[in-house]
Amino acid sequence: xxxEIFQQARIHEVESTADTARSRASDAMSSAAEVxxxxxxxxxxxxxxxxxxxxxxxLTERExxxxxxxxxxxxxxxDSRLKKAIRECPRxxxxxxLRHARCLYCGHQESRDPFxxxx
Length: 119
Ligand SMILES: [Zn+2]
Fold this sequence. Notes:
This protein is mainly alpha-helical. It has helices at about 1-55, 60-70.
């Protein structure tokens, strides 16, 4: 009798854990789909911008590739990723936070990079 009650409690616990895992998996799949949709939109907009620029200014794909490589190498690594570099405050020379445009020590305000909110 006691063993049966214990087993029922364990079964209920395992079912609850499975429900939680199913719910989390569903949430993760929804998030991945949202990221994929945003990425698809960014690729589309990027493609449109490139076609306008190349047509209006005569830029070549070689020039685009060279610029991509130059930007990729700014952090010292050829990894097809754009990482923010650690910066030194121009006023107090302390290390600035990568997440803030304002120096946490002296309050110096960096000029805003329009791509700060993208990365
Ligand atoms: Zn500072």
